[in-house]
Automatic annotation (TrEMBL):
Name the record gives this protein: Ribosome-interacting GTPase 1
Domain OBG-type G: 64-290
One of the protein's GO biological processes: positive regulation of cellular response to amino acid starvation
Keywords assigned by UniProt, alphabetized: GTP-binding, Nucleotide-binding
Source taxonomy: Eukaryota, Fungi, Dikarya, Ascomycota, Pezizomycotina
GO MF annotations in UniProt: GTP binding; GTPase activity
Organism encoding this protein: Cladosporium halotolerans
One protein family per Pfam: TGS
Gene behind this protein: RBG1
Domain TGS: 290-366
Length: 367
């Protein structure tokens, strides 16, 4: 019997043979959807070698986590030890690190968990090495550092991104602006706000049919591709994660070469061994994590700037703030007085649903 990997190969071959035009768009849409379903099958934890595994699941601490992904011996563990002081074995041979090694840093008052991971190799997402377990951990992180060795060709970057993509991780992207609403009958109706240059209506229909969504309204508000459409259908298995490329070992290259590296978007050239430019790496980390520091001001006193309550920007209402302090506070809550970027008037009285911004100052008034 053909394995899932064989079936994937067959479909990829067929897609490569098929010319893309109006006449083939339905067929290609069908193939894309089939391919995506097979890949998902490959990644379900029940199949051998998938899922977590000993040494990979670690207790999560802090407000956010950053995972290190890279080929063996690019310097992930050296970086880990440099950033956190937590020793992670580093050596000149490949696969020195075999499990998840957790560490922690405190940056701008926020506790951030750092996860040093084993190296991955090409084909990791398809089960080569322990790549799947490693990428599965990365998928749960709020930020990924893709660590690259500047002495090796930067084509490695594309290979790693491809591995992550194949596992449902979307790098430095936001979810496509496509809304699918299921109906009982009436077939598929598509509305768009701009011309679609990558996808034919037939292709959209083929994909939806393949997913047994023959009756639905599709509102597309971007120049979507078939992959975008599938990402929206498969939203549950997709993770949109910001990435910083840590270009390591710059101590081994010339200034001219370094200059070129600075042109790569979202990249930060560093030397883990010498600690060069890790400050910039931390700044980029902070920017990407989009954390929200909120300072408490006891009534009639100065704000406490030493210990912010740090919230994730996806959960930073006054209610989230209260819950971060103690779960009983919400019950006693009357109103909050806020100074800062989230309010028009300084100060302003707000309720539990108010969205806070980074560096707001807040006083809770109890009933
Ligand atoms: N020149 C130079 N060498 C470095 C730097 N960082 C790490 N190395 C060396 O690169 C080798 C591999 O470092 P590790 O930190 O073990 O790399 P790793 O990515 O954790 O490797 P695995 O755990 O095997 O995947 C070691 O010999 C380090 O001393 C750096 O900034 N410059
Ligand atoms: K190593
Ligand atoms: Mg290591």
């Amino acid at each position: 019997m053909a394995t899932t990997v064989d079936k994937i190969k067959q479909i990829e071959d067929e897609m490569a043979k098929t010319q893309k035009n109006k006449a083939t768009s339905f067929h290609l849409g069908q193939l894309k959807a089939k391919l995506s379903k097979l890949k998902k099958e490959l990644l379900t934890p029940t199949s051998s070698g998938g899922g977590g595994g000993a040494g990979f699941d670690v207790a999560r601490t802090g407000v956010a986590s950053v995972g290190f992904i890279g080929f063996p011996s690019v310097g992930k563990s050296t970086l880990m030890s440099r950033l956190t002081g937590q020793h992670s074995e580093a050596a000149a041979y490949e696969f020195t690190t075999l499990t998840t090694v957790p560490g922690q840093i405190i940056y701008n008052g926020a506790k951030i968990q750092i996860l040093d991971l084993p190296g991955i190799i090409q084909g990791a997402k398809d089960g080569k090495g322990r790549g799947r377990q490693v990428i599965a951990v990365a998928k749960t992180c709020h930020l990924i550092f893709i660590v690259l060795d500047v002495n090796k060709p930067l084509t490695d970057k594309a290979v790693i991104e491809n591995e992550l993509e194949g596992f449902g991780i979307r790098v430095n992207k936001s979810p496509p602006n496509i809304k699918i609403t299921k109906k009982d009958k009436g077939g598929i109706s598509i509305t768009t706000t701009q011309p679609l240059t990558h996808i034919e209506p037939d292709e959209i229909k083929a994909v939806l049919n393949e997913y047994r969504m023959a009756n639905c309204d599709v509102a597309i508000r971007c120049d979507a591709t078939v992959d975008d459409l599938i990402d929206v259908i498969e939203a549950k298995s997709r993770s949109y994660i910001p990435v910083v490329y840590a270009l390591n070992k710059i101590d081994a290259i010339s200034i001219e070469e370094l200059d070129l590296l600075y042109r790569i978007p979202n990249a930060c050239p560093i030397s883990s061994e010498h600690g060069w430019n890790v400050d910039e790496l931390m700044e980029q980390m902070w920017e990407k994590l989009k954390l929200c520091r909120v300072y408490t001001k006891p009534k009639g006193k100065m704000p406490d700037y030493t210990a912010p309550v740090v919230l994730r920007s996806t959960a930073c209402t006054v209610e989230d703030f209260c819950n971060a302090i103690h779960k009983t506070i919400v019950d006693q809550f009357k109103v909050a007085i806020v100074y800062g970027k989230s309010v028009k008037h300084q100060p302003q009285r707000v309720g539990l649903s108010h969205q806070l911004a980074d560096e707001d100052v807040l006083t809770i008034i109890k009933k």
